[in-house]
Structure of Biotin carboxyl carrier protein of acetyl-CoA carboxylase:
Amino acid sequence: MSNKTHESDVAFIRALAELLTENDLTELAVKREYGQDDTLNVRVSRRGETVTTQVNSAPPAPAAAAPAPAAPAAAEAAAPVEDPASHPGAVTSPMVGTVYMQAEPGAPSFVSVGQQVEEGDTLLIIEAMKTMNHIPAPRAGTVRRILIEDGAAVEYGAPLMIIE
């Protein structure tokens, strides 16, 4: 991309930030392509209230590839020693939405810590776009940890609970 700026990019980034807030998301990443060598990569994150953008106007050069290895190193340094998502018994979210631990307010929770579950038992519900999606247990076992709270927003791939 030349030195000219796309005025629509500013409005686009503001719209992404509003979408992030309205849906209580923690991060949103989008790649916008204008042409063969003209792209805009935007990542909006609420973790530190940061907004980052990257504009590529030419094919990636070896110097541009150098920062990529630094990102995993930084992630490893900031990551906790025990990542629930890497646990072999982790049940992860298949979608973005809002978690409900019971069928309706005041009803008992579908599962609790220490409870035995069978494959296919409903663990929780994720509401996405006004649709209630029952999330089944992927395997039989005992619920060891519940990693989310009722009414919390979850992202795709976020760990929900540990079943061993």
